[in-house]
Structure formats: C-alpha cells, structure tokens
Amino acid sequence: MKHVARKRFGQHFLTDTGAIDDIVRLIAPQPSQPMVEVGPGLAALTQPLMERVGRLTVIELDRDLAARLRRHGQLQVIESDVLQVDFTQLAAELHTQRLRVVGNLPYNISTPILFHLLDHATVVQDQHFMLQKEVIERMVAPPSCAAYGRLSVMLQWRYDMENLMHIGPEAFDPPPRVDSAIVRMVPKIEPLSLDVAVLSELVQVAFSQRRKLLRHTLGVWLQQRGWEVEFDVQRRAEEVPAEAYWRLAQAAVNQ
Which of 79, 112, 138, 255 registers the highest number of CB atoms within 10 A of its CB? Predict the structure, then answer.
C-alpha cells in the first residue's frame, strides 16, 4: 500500500536515483560507522546507507513509516519527534564518542532541529542534511549580504559548513515548492568558549531590526544589562563579522 505524504510532517520523499547516489557519495559512509538518519521516510537514503555501514539508527515520527522501517532487521528505529531525542545519550547507548548524522529534514521545523543538535555537537563527527536551499544559504552566508543573520552567526560559531549540492523540486514526490540543497556540517574541535544562551539572545536582538544601527537595538540591550564592552554599535547587524558577535558574547559573560 502506497504511503501518502502527510503535510503536517512536512513530508516530501526523495525519489531521484541519481540524486540519491550523489548524496550517498558525498556522505561517504564507511563500514561499522555509528550513523543516525533523521526522517528516513520511505528509506530512499536508508537502504544504501545501511548497505554500506551495516547497521543504522533511524528517527521517524510517522507511526506508519516507523512500522515499515522495523521490517528491516539491520535498523534500530526510534519512533519519536527528533526534538525530543537526546543525541548525547544516544551516542552513549551506541557505545561511540562520535555520531554521523544524516537526513532529509522536514523543512517546516528545520531551524529548531539545527539548534537542537547544536546542544549535542560534542558527540557528532559530522552532519549531512537536505534542507531548503534558502536555509543553507543563510547558514553559510558571510557578512554584508541579505542571507546573513542569526542562523549564520550561531551555526558558524560551532561548525565548519559547506553547501555541497543543489536538488530541484522534481527529485521529490510530492515536489516541494522550493529548491533544496545538501549541507555538510563538521563541528569545530575548539570553538570559542562562550555562553550559547547569551550568544543566541544578543544575536536575536541584533537582527531584530536589520535596517537600523545597532545602537538602537543591541546597544540598548547591553546598557540595560550594565555590560560595558568595546563594541561598535554604529553599524547595522549584517555588517558585523560573526566572530565579533562571538567575542562580544564571551566578553559580556566574563565581566
């Protein structure tokens, strides 16, 4: 019986065999590597990944799809919302220090998933995700461009990232209304030490009114907290390099 894609789960199933082969080649799975796939769906990537690593852990929220996946003896199926999965605990259960995480993330909640995984970066070797092309452009964006923003600053602090491949809507069933892409995310070995919650809040404030100078937003926020740090607020948020935000978060906490 054919599975009908469910809008509430943001389901778009990859069907293009050429694209699947290219993605697997980019991931380059090796035998016995501890790999976790998020949102396996109809197992388009699951099957070739499993053939290469030998055993695979998958996280699937859709009850019907989870039942299908359990028929594969070499799959460990976690039927859950990925936002509820503790990847650090999962790594311990799989007896590994580093997980490889892959997946076609639901586009409607891709950003929350990326931020959730940010908390578990210490147990991740790398991440390969299919996402909306526009989201990946924001992730890897440099300063002084329209795509540069909170997602750029937060994720570039913790990961080295690369936009690997474009995938058109015709590669999916049903076709999404947007273009897709593949991103590689490799956690930095020694990211700048800072309070992630502080960085998240200050960046959110900074980009809340992109067209205004930072003295109207971030400058006020710093004053309200009594934080006296050297930081030029006579700039717009998108003009500030990501590392300057990281240094600010570090300096503010160390006062």
Answer: 138
